[in-house]
User: Which sequence fits this backbone?
């Protein structure tokens, strides 16, 4: 049985403006919903992570290839609908929503403060995209000595081959990689 007291499920970038690019039917987000449900049932802390910026985008450098186009579009401020957590996995009372300013969930956010305050030592990662927030957060969390699990079916990427290589070959070097169903069994 997993040590749920010291475990947190990070639901990363499952926000309106990102989910809309990946939806391929009503079942697309089912693994995320199942992961959140299993975590809540077992008493695992659920933490939502989103990317969003202040009005005027002062956090975005024009040299940042990934984020500078978002500043030009102007639709990823923290108050915009695009940065709100998708309704299918809506946070409940007591579940923090962390705002980050770069790809990793740790970058510019208060995530590490929350994890320390709650004595979290094991992170379970899911999110959009596998090659973005999941990869960046996994690498940084591994360097910070967190125990890591990646829920491979609760990760989406625009490139299926990149997703496969990451979950089959790269992530297992630093994390346990399993399906949501496999992880849920460890919580029982």
Assistant:
């Amino acid at each position: 049985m997993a040590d749920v007291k010291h475990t947190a499920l990070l639901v990363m970038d499952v926000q309106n403006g990102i989910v809309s690019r990946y939806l391929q039917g009503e079942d697309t987000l089912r693994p995320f919903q199942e992961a959140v449900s299993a975590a809540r049932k077992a008493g695992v802390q659920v933490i939502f992570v989103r990317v969003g910026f202040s009005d005027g985008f002062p956090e975005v450098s024009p040299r940042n290839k990934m984020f500078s186009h978002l500043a030009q579009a102007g639709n990823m401020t923290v108050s915009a609908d695009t940065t709100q957590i998708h309704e299918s996995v809506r946070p409940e009372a007591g579940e923090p929503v962390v705002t980050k300013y770069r790809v990793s969930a740790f970058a510019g956010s208060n995530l590490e403060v929350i994890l320390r305050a709650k004595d979290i030592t094991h992170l379970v990662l899911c999110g959009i995209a596998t090659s973005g927030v999941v990869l960046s957060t996994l690498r940084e969390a591994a360097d910070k000595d967190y125990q890591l699990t990646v829920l491979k079916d609760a990760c989406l990427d625009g490139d299926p081959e990149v997703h496969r290589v990451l979950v089959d070959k790269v992530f297992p070097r630093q994390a346990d990689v399993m399906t949501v169903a496999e992880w849920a069994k460890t919580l029982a």
In short: Residues 130-143 form the longest helix (14 residues). The CA atoms of residues 34 and 180 lie 7 Å apart. The chain has seven helices and six strands. The chain has a mean pLDDT of 94.
